[in-house]
Amino acid sequence: RRQKTLRARSGARTMADMTEVEEVEEVDLERKLAGGFHKLSSAISKHQHKKVLKHANELLELVPEDETARHCKLVALIHLGKLEEAHELANGAKTRRTLLKKERAYCYYRNGDLGKALGMAEACEDTEGVMELKGQLLYRLGRREESKDVYERLLQSHKRGRVKTADLLGNIIASYISAGSAGDVPSVLKQVGASKSSLEETPEIAYNNACVSLSLGKYAEAMDLLQVAERVGYESLFEDDLTEEETKEELAHVFAQKAFVLERLGRPKESQEQTAQVLKCVSQDDVTLAIATNNLAALRGSANVHDSLKRFDKLQALRAESEKSSGKVRRKNSLGDATGLVLSQDFAGLLQPEESSCVLSNYAACALLAGRPEAAERTAERALEACSGRPDAAATMALALARQGREDEALSSLDEFRERGGDPEAAAVAKCEIAVLCSKWKQAANALLSLPEDKRHQPAAIATALWLLERSGDKSRASSAVDACASWWDSQASSGALSEGGFASYARALKICGQFRFRSKDPDGAAALYQKVLDRTDDPQLRSEAMAGLVQLHGVSDASLADRYESEMPPVPGLEELDVELLEQATVRSARGSQPRPQGAMAAPSAAKDDPAKPSSAAQDEVYATKSKAQRRREFLRTLPEERQEYVAARQKEQRRKKAKRKAKQPADCAGEPDPERWIPKRDRSGYKKTRREKKLAKSVVKGSQGAGKVNEMLDKSQAPVDTTRGPNLPNLPRRRKR
User: Fold this and answer.
1) In Å, how far from its chain's centre is CA 511?
2) Which residue in 29, 578, 646, 650 is a FRET match for 552, CA 20 to 30 A apart?
3) Phi/psi at 233 (nearest 5 deg)?
4) Residue 421 CB neighbour total at 10 angstroms
5) Which residues touch 128 (CB under 8 Å, ≥6 apart)?
6) What confidence tens digit (pLDDT) does each residue in 289-331 have?
7) What is the DSSP track for 475-528?
């Protein structure tokens, strides 16, 4: 019984001891947790993400199921750029995914899965961070208006407060620019209270601020702001201890934008040089490579087309290498392949659809200029897939088809482009040009006459349409087009919708219609149109052409009409000095070069003396004397206005200088016989005198067969005396050991 009692007491003491140990452990755990969370909170407030990750891991070792520590670890991994670990942690089985939707969406966004990231972000509550992420996702997906709307709602929640981060302000500016609302950016900056210093806080926001001025067409101001962005970039990157080459690589987008602004400022040569410099320092996986390559090809135009194609080929080199590493067969270089350009995923994912279409369209144009219509056709087709409303891609594709002899397909492709919602005017003009190249005059005229009335009745359009209809032989339709053009312009003039420039176009169109009526043997219709031109315009040139047409029509039958219009015509400088009577009496210069003489100048010299009204023979000789070229040039200059005389004189002087430079020098003595050795080089001629260097080289040259030249006697040992006192010259070998 005593033993049982002792055992019971010892068991009670053991249970009490265990309880005390557990209580001590709990107190110790609570103390460690409190210290750990205090350290974690301090690191979070100081934005020390490495320490946040360290303290979160320590807490998770103590309490593996703590959601707060796991959440802090996930955010720290995202800030540190360890996206794979963050993605794995966010999708872990132990994590409550419903609480980490925002972080998971951000991980998908950074890993390039934009659609899935947007779906998760839309499922989250619209907090400030979620709205910022959603706006950025919509911007990257090309839904610019929606992105702008999200940022507008985000700005309304600030209530005229300052934006917390410069990155957010830069994203807001970028979304407004991409949505075509760059004019609203100044009011937005005023709303958020952005100052000049805040716009220069980071290189990104300074660059976006410069792009605002560029979108508004203020190119000089944009150039100044880009200089600021470059300075801010150099200052921020200097703190990271980067080399000069690494700094240029980081700021390549700023230099590329400066080159574009130089082109807009009318300095294409400097723009081309700076774009070439950008291509030397830009990284091969940077989207700036695609933009700078495209801009350089556009600046060159039809020059250096093959070099432009080689530069375009770098945009798909990365894709080709990835196919090679995955075991696929690498296709040929695009310069020798008909598949054209296929942008790699590294560039296609970063470029907007319009930008990708622009790059592909320019490549197609270069391929067409280089004589590769198949590559141009396929690349233009991809450009239309990226942006279906791009007219230059449709025109390039149609022209490539026409170059391959598929003319009907080329014309039908433009019709399909218009049916898909493309620009109908651009499609009609392109169809007209390609039909003219294929000598299909009627289809070209139909395409041009399908334009809207305000376009097809313009002077250039109606003149081209009439020429095409005349070539096709459809004069009845040409006459209908003339009637429609004249009536449309009359209605516009009577309604008062024409400006001063519109009246000039009206007069030109009527003049073109009048010329067609004259060619069609309709003098009355032509005269009526010419008279309308006189009534509608005060332009002296148009009035002169119209009056000349009226005189041509009715001057023979009605001389008074010619006199009336002659009095209204502006004076021609130099005509007052000419004697028409003498010009009528003058003879034409013969083919032998005889001097023109007035008829009857030698017939009756006595009559010339008696009649003072008739010019004397001396005066006639003075008028019809042979004049040198210099005299004729001086007389021609006197007929010009004073402001043109100096320019024409300078041009004539330059032409004379070039002509004298081109003129070959005549030899001093041409009487002798030609040199029979003039066809062989001078050094091989009989009378050639060698230089000192050539004479020295001629002495050291060994002529004849091998070994027939002069031999140094010191090298000949056959006649040398033999030394009998010395033994044979044996090699020094080691002595053998005696056994």
Assistant:
1) 39
2) 578
3) -65, -45
4) 9
5) 154, 157
6) 889 999 999 998 888 888 888 888 888 744 444 444 444 444 4
7) HHHHHHHHHHHHHHHHHHHHHT---HHHHHHHHHHHHHHHHHHHHTT-HHHHHH
